Every structure is written in structure tokens, then in C-alpha cells.
Amino acid sequence: MFGIMVARYMKKINQMETNNMEDKSIAIILKKELPKGLVGNICACLSTGITNLNPSIIGTDISAKDIILKAITKIPIIILEENKLGIKEVLKRARKNDLDFVLYDRLAVGAVNYEEYAKKIVQREGEMETLGIAIIGDKLSVKKVIGDLPLMRN
After folding, report:
1. pLDDT value at position 54?
2. What are the percentages of helix, strand and coil residues in the chain, rounded to 5?
3. Distance (Å, rounded) from C-alpha 99 to C-alpha 91?
4. What is the CATH number of the domain that holds 26?
């Protein structure tokens, strides 16, 4: 399976200062009842997309004894499920709160490569089916979006 994020909404990302990461929050919100393998793939794709919006959210490599641990995010990533209002409501709230986001569309599932996926997106007829969304922004704005969403459970 080749998972790819579909869309990025970017305002001026320069607003996110490198030294002010403790005031930022990241959340990934997924459709309910997705298979575990797909959940992992979607989370990986959305995480890479959201960190691409602002590379300063990535820490530095850590040297420890006989291994170098490659950098991960400086900000924890919360994984949640949609509520009864669905992913569309999360997207609406993210836009209302002027948050940056990355979407994962169902057309990414099973795509062999990015070119095939992009072609499917361009040729799509009908509405997009979003399986997941990652959002990033100041903690208060993110909380406004995710405050009533449940944590993802096994």
C-alpha cells in the first residue's frame, strides 16, 4: 500500500516560530473503524505532511552510547477518532480557526505511486472521501477543533 497525503492548506507558516514550539499542538483525526494497518499508514503519511509544513517542529539527532537516534517531532502528536459529526466537521473547524492541515483521501489507498494517485485525484468525479486529517497550530485553536473528539482506541 502506498499512502499519500492529498492536500495541504497553507497560510504563512512563518508565523510558527522555531523557538515557540511549546505553544503548538498537532492532532491527527481518523475515520472510525479503519483497519490497523491502514491507520498506521495514514498516520505516517499525515505526520510527514504536517512536519513538511514547518520543518522546525523536528528535533535534532541524539547521540547515545553506540547509536544515533534520528530526530522526531518536538511536539507530541495526539491521535483521535472522528465523532458523530465526522471528518468534514473537523475540516470546517480547522479552517474556521485558521489552522494548517493535511488531508488523506481514500484514493491514496492502494495507489502504487504518487503519479497514479495524483492522476486519480485530478480525474475524480464527485466528492472527496477524507479518511484522516492532521492539524497543527497554537494549542488553544487546536483544542477548539478537537475538544469533543475521542482518543483512538484499539
Report:
1. 86
2. 40, 25, 35
3. 9
4. 3.40.1490.10
